[in-house]
Structures are given as C-alpha cells and as structure tokens.
Amino acid sequence: MFVLEPKHVHMNLRAKDKATALQCLVNILVEDQLTTAEYLTGLQDREAQGATYLGQGIAIPHGTPQSREFIKQTGIRLAHFPEGVGWDGEHKIYLAVVIAAKSDEHLQVLQILTRALNHDVSVQVQTATTAEQIIDILQVRPDTLVIHENLIQTQTHVEDIDDFFWAAAKLLKQQKLVEAGFLSQLDPKNLIQIQDAIWTISGKNYVAEAAVSIVQAEQVLNFAQGQIQTLICIAQHEQLDMVQLNHLIDLLFQSNIQQQLQSEQSRHEIAKLIGAEIIPDWPYQPVVLANKHGLHARPATQLVNISKTFKGDIQVAVDGGPYVSAKSLTKLLALGCQYGQTLTFIAEPNTDAVEGLTAIVQAVKNGLGEEVEPLDQSETASIVQAETAWEEIIDTDLPAQGTAASSGLAFGPAHVIKPKKFQYERFGRNLKAEKEKLEIALYSVKNTIHQLILKTEIDEIKQIFQAHLEMLDDPDLIQQVHQGLNQNLTAAAAWHDYIEQAAQTQAALNDPLLAERAADLRDIGDKVLSVLCDEVMPLEPEQAYILVMHDLGPGDVARLDKDRVAGILTAVGGASAHSAIVARALGIPAVVGAGEQILKIETQTTVLINGDTGAIDIDPAAEQIEQAIREREQQKQRRQQAERHCQEAAMTVDQHQVEIAANIGKILDTAKAVDHGAEAIGLLRTELVFMAHRQAPNEITQEKEYRHVLDTLAGRPLVVRTLDVGGDKPLPYLPIATEENPFLGLRGIRLTLRKPQLLRQQLIALVKAADGRPLRIMFPMVGRIEEWRAARHILDEVLAEYPCENLQVGIMIEVPSAALLAPLLAKEVDFFSIGTNDLTQYTLAIDRGHPVLSAEADGLHPSILLLIDQAVRAAHAHQKWVGVCGELAADPKAVPVLLGLGVDELSMSSSSIPLVKAQIRTLNYADCQQLAQRALQCESATAVRDLVELTHG
Ligand code: PEP
Ligand code: MG
C-alpha cells in the first residue's frame, strides 16, 4: 500500500521550463534509487504524446510503457514549484507528482489525488511552505456524504450485532469509502436507537470518504440493548459538511420513513426514500479491464476522448460501485480500476451514446492504446465460463486398460458425462429480474428432484435427494446468494460464486463425509446453473449403464442408483482415490485413471469393464458379453457364499490364521463391521470422528463415542489412531497456517505433539472408555523415534492418573524412516500398523490424491514390500504383531503377498471382509511365503502383479 509521506515531497524548486522540470524530477527519482537516468526519455516521450496536466495546478508526469525497464522500484515523488512551470501551453503547474510505476500500486495515490481535485486547491498548492501542508492538501477528503443505492443491502442474514457491523462495513469497503480497520472501531456500546428496531452507528477512523451504508436484516434480532432490524452505519470525518448528515438523520426520525424502513422494501425503494443516489436504469454493457497496470492516466485519457465523441451521457462503474461520468478524467482515475475488474458502462437512453457503448467496450477490450494482458476468463470475464476442470483430450486411441478400483465385471451402454460449460454475464442490471430468475430456477430444480424421489425405490437415494431439497431450501444459502445479487451480480454469477466457495471450503477438509457434501453442493449447483444458463443436462439412459466421467466425487458415487449404474469408468484417479473407496463400499465395479480419451466414447456405445483387472472393452463382441455374464454370475455366487461364512476365521489351508479387522471413520459403523465379520476394529480414524462435530468434541463426548465402539465390539479389540489431522485433512476448528507441502508439513503426531493438551484429552477419553476391554492406541505419521517417545511420555502421564488394563500402544508405519528404523522402534512399541496408503505416497513420492499420477502409486511396488518386510521381521524379532490398514490390505493380488511377508492382521473397509476371508481360506501359507520372497526380488509393481497372477491366478 502506498502512503504519501512528507519525505517524498521536494519543496521550493525552480524550473525555467518544462524540460528543466522533467530533468529535475528524474534527478529526484535517480537519487532515491527509483529509476535510472534514462527514465527521462520516457517522461519526455509521454509528454510529447499528450501533456500530463491533471488540473488545479497539478501534473502527473510518468514514463511510457517502453521506459519501464528503467524503473528499479515503484514509487512516487512530489515536486513543488511555487513559481509555476508552463505545462500544456495553457496551464501552469505548481506541483508535479512524478510516477515511476512498475505495476498498478500507484493507482491508489492517483485516487487520492483526484479526490483532492474536487476542491479548488491550486492556490493552496502554490503557496504551501511545508511538505506536510502539501500532503494535507492532497489528502483533503470531499465534504459531501456519499449515499447511493449500492450502499444499501436488504434481506441480510445476520445472527448477531457483529454480523450487522460486518455487513455494513463491507458495503463501505467494497466501494473504497473506508479502509481496513474501520470495522474494528464499531462498538455496540455506541449504537444509537432512532426508533424501535432502527439503530445507527458511526466511525471516524479509517474513513476515505464520508458515506452511509444501510443494512436491513431479514428479521428482527434481539441483542443486549434491545431489538434491531435496520442498521445505518455512518463513516464520517472532520471535514464532512454536517448539514447533509443532519438532513439524513432528520429524515430518519420521520415516522413515515421509519415505518417504511421497517417493512420489506427493495434497496431501490429505500434509496428513493432517503434521497440516495439511484442507479439509472439505462442500457449497459460490461467489460473486463485487461490493462496490466489498471486504468491509469493514459488509457483513462483515451477513454475520456472516445466517450466525448458521443453527445449522450455515458457513465461507468467498477465492480458494482457508484457510476461516474466516463467523460471526466479525474472521475475515471478516482475509480482506481485495476486489471481484471469489470467496468460497466451505461448510456443515456435515446441518445447516440447507446450506440456508442459497443465502440467504447471494444476500445477497452483493445487496451485503450496499451497492450492487453490475457485475462483468466473463468474468473474475471464479464461473460463467465464456469466449467469442470479437465485436461485437454489428446487425440489418441481409446484406452484398453485403466486401474482396477472396485471388483466386478460390468457392461452396458456408455453414459458419458462431459465437463459442463456454463456461460453467463457477471453483472446484472435489474435486481428484481435476477431475483425472479433465481426463484424460477430453484423451483424448477426442486420440482425435478421431487419427481426423482417419487421414482426411486432405494431409501438411501431418496435420502440423498431429500438432503438436496433441504440444501436448496437452506435460508443461509439463499441469503448468501441474495447478498451477491445485492452486489449487482446476475443470478447465475451469485449462485455459482456462493456454491463454489462453499464447496471448496467443504472439499478442503478432505474428509469423505464433508467432501460428499461438497460434491452434493456442486451437484445441485450445476443443476440450478443449467436452468439459469439454459443448458440441457444429459438424460440418464433407461437401462443399466456404464457411467463414464472425468472423475467422480464420493457424493456422486453415493447417490448412484445401483440398479441403473452397472459400472464406473473414470479418466483420472487411483485405487486409493475417494471415488474408488466409495465404489468398493457400494459394490459397484469401477475402473479409474483410464485417461481423458475415454470421454471420447460415444454415448450408447457398449462398454465392458473389469474392476479386478482394470481391462476396458469398447464395443465388445457378443461372445465377450456372454462370457462376462457367466463370470459375473459366478462372482455373485462367490460373494454370497463368502458372506455366509464371514463370521468364520480367516485360516489358510495349512492352518495359519490372520486376524481380519475393519477400518471405520464413523462411530455408528462399528455394528456394520461386526456384521460383515470384522474380528476387531483395526483402524478407527478419529479425525473423521472429530470432523463430524462442528467444534472439538470435549473429553466427555469423546469418551461416550469411544465407549459406544467398545460396547458394540463386545470384547473384540479396538485399534484407535490418535488424531491424524493437518496436511490434507484440516479441522475447521484447529487452524493450521497454510503450508506449501501439507503432506510434508504439520500432520498427525507432529501436530498433536505441538498441541499436547488436545492429545492428552483424547488419550484420557480413550483410557477412561476402555474399562478393561482390549484397547490399542497408535500414533500416526511417526517418522522419528523422538516423536514416538514424546507421545508415549504423554500417554504415560495420563496412565499414571488413569490406569488402563489390557492396553497396547503402537505406531503407524507410514513414513519410510519409521519402516527403516523398525528394528529400534520394535523394542519399544507393542505393535505396528502399516498404513500403505501413505507409505506408498512417501516412498514413491507420488501425491496419493494426484489426479494423474496416483494411478502409478501402487502399494505392491517392491520398494514398499521391502519396507513392509523389514517392519514385520523387526516386530516379530521382539514378539510384536504387525497389521496392514491401508487399501492394499483388501487388494486380492496383495493379500497372498502380505500374508507371505508375515503380516498378522489385515484391516479394511467392512464390505471387503467376506471376500478377503474367503480368499485366505483358499491360500497355502507356505506358498505365500515363497511368493513373497520372489515378490521382493521383482523390479516393478507390474512384475509383482504378474507374478501373483501366474502363481495364484
Ligand atoms: C494409510 O496411510 O495407509 C492409512 C491407513 O491412513 P490414512 O489413509 O487415513 O491416511
Ligand atoms: Mg495415513
């Protein structure tokens, strides 16, 4: 931020002419290390193009774009010439504000200057004797009160008085009438009641221009001093002409005005009521400014010149702000429009100006005499394109192979969902019309959802749609979108902005539960946006189909009608991607990460996928389909058979037993795990338990939840992982500073060791819930022995106070350093649980959620098997047990290898348990051991998979 300081002002200079003055200015810039001496030619060339006289005895000399290379640092200097210097053949200047600007930071100073030009300051500038006086003159603020329609917001959702203050200050700040800090001085103690639920508050600090904003809440709110529905927020300063303000206050005291203010009114009506400036309902055209350095003096001059060629009035506003004449240079500069902001031009009806709008907008697009910088269309264009991110489809053959993600064979006509493209204008003109559009769109989408609810027979799907209806009726959502509308956005822009922002916040939590909500939000978001943008959504085929998509969120999968969606084929994603995990849980066959080319498959073409091998057949022969039907029938029978025996042990033919446990993230899923044959909970992801709460659950709540799991387990062991937040799993109520590499940052034990109180509380809740039942506590993300010892020390302190029988304490092995140090760690811990998802990510240095690479992050890579082997041998040498709780534990190709490596426990999602148990019953432990030794010698994950295929086919 630029601040004018007295040290930047050079007083009492003399120059016989403009050339000498320019030289003098460059000398100042060079001396202050802002430019090199060559900048002089830039100043001269610019003056040759047109004098930089601004008005009121002030000029703003600055270089041409070509001379920017001579700028070392952006800066502004002021030179006072009391005797004056002839500048443009007509006017003398007494003050030169010389600008060396690399970017647009100086626009702010120009804004301040142009405000000063609303006053007659030339004599004061000429006769000033000190630098401080010059600064004071320039920083003089207009004495009129700004009050216009855009400073009024109705139907605002507020929950307390702070929300009122925040909304009122935000309106003022958006229009640059107050600066950051204004809000902090608003104190409820200073509220003054005008009448009933109408109150005023005022602030004198951080005020750029005196102004009034009005916030009307959607309902009356109780607060300490009484009731409030309308807040009138006054930003004032000493130079304000109080007559205008007093007039407004008098007006507010009139009972008829009060009555109307307390009834539901549009902001347009309120504006009329209190005599605020009203946005004229003129023809308009928006355009985004693509000049890298903003609307500074030169392009603004061009804009003025073009606008002046039309007789009719032309006004312009920036991003929903107040309208000013496009024919006034100072007014344009005062807008401070920056690159990427939207200028909306309006033209006086029935004049040549209406026709002129197109020419003006075109001139702005062309850069007003400057080079333009391409704009990020999706974010800033007046015509916004909202679309799902995806990579360009490379024109190569359709793929025959993807990553096997969810077991089973599936075929059917392809239903290809391509990324959606929506086009809409960002700024609207008619608030009422935009509100109506939104209402109609919401009504239409709700109607469609009602019909879907009537059609579907599956309860879970009904519930999902029911939840969508609730989301669409959520008063908070509607309120937030209305706030966007009140800021002049179109219904589509306001809707998309809110949905995207809300979905991003949810998705960032990376919790499957909340991510589901993000996907749901985007889903209903797209539905409403399609209506607003007249886009037709593709119709679902009648018969069971293969859903082909770029990627699928867990929410997408969860709401799939299993009777309609035979299988899933995606362009990106890996076996440990969320969509794959949910597809497995639902038992829908899936092949993921097949490449963007799959989006070229023609809708209705028959596709056959094999969720066990990753094979894809496009338009297969009839015999292949028949074969697939036979195989599928066999698979179905195998599953049914496996389910019948799921409560039996997983014992190999040569009597080697492996414990089979379940991974859960929801307390209530314990019962389902037991039903599916889980012999223990092998991983309770407590961060997911935490995420289900809006704020950190206290010790009592935690104890209650852990107790529920242990009760349901009825004597079976419970392996609990302490909080594994941080990195990609932030907890909203546990803020962590933004990190460049969150996976390598404050995560798991690294975080909780820095918040020992949080860890201690969780440990107390756990040991108190145990009551002598088999509790195993493990710490996540341990990479160094010191971390393990520090965590163990905290637990020991807890145990000294709350003794706990039948407790084992272990660590997750998911960082390669922990696997390598296993011989040392094994002496101290009771068990290891290998988290192959993270161990694979950190060993192969592939982000587990990477949209393209994650398919290559195969846990059967020999490097990971070597680490598992090392950990198992180290543990067994000290009679400790080892589990695997990553996704690998349920991979049919990995099961014999893990068994052969000597893993004692496999923990997986509940639905995988019956088949894995059945598979183990067919294996021979001695063979598995041999297989594992050969796998350790392989050179790649593919080689390991081929080996398993060959020996265990
Ligand atoms: C793992 O990393 O394998 C693991 C089980 O932990 P999470 O997937 O929760 O990170
Ligand atoms: Mg992990």
Structural account:
With 953 residues, the chain is α/β, with parallel strands linked by helices. It folds into five domains: 6-138, 3-Layer(aba) Sandwich (Mannitol-specific EII, Chain A); 149-274, 3-Layer(aba) Sandwich (Mannitol-specific EII, Chain A); 284-366, HPr-like (Histidine-containing Protein, Chain: A, 2-Layer Sandwich); 421-533, PtsI, HPr-binding domain (Enzyme I, Chain A, domain 2, Orthogonal Bundle); 657-952, TIM Barrel (Alpha-Beta Barrel). It is built from 35 helices and 32 strands. The strands form six sheets. The chain has an eight-stranded parallel beta barrel, surrounded by five helices. Strands 16-21-20-19-17-22-23 form a seven-stranded mixed beta sheet. Helix 14 (431-455) packs across helix 18 and helix 17 runs antiparallel to helix 18 (512-532). The protein is elongated, with a radius of gyration of 34 Å. The protein starts with 8 loop residues before the first strand and ends with a helix. Magnesium ion (MG) binds at residues 814, 835, 837-838.
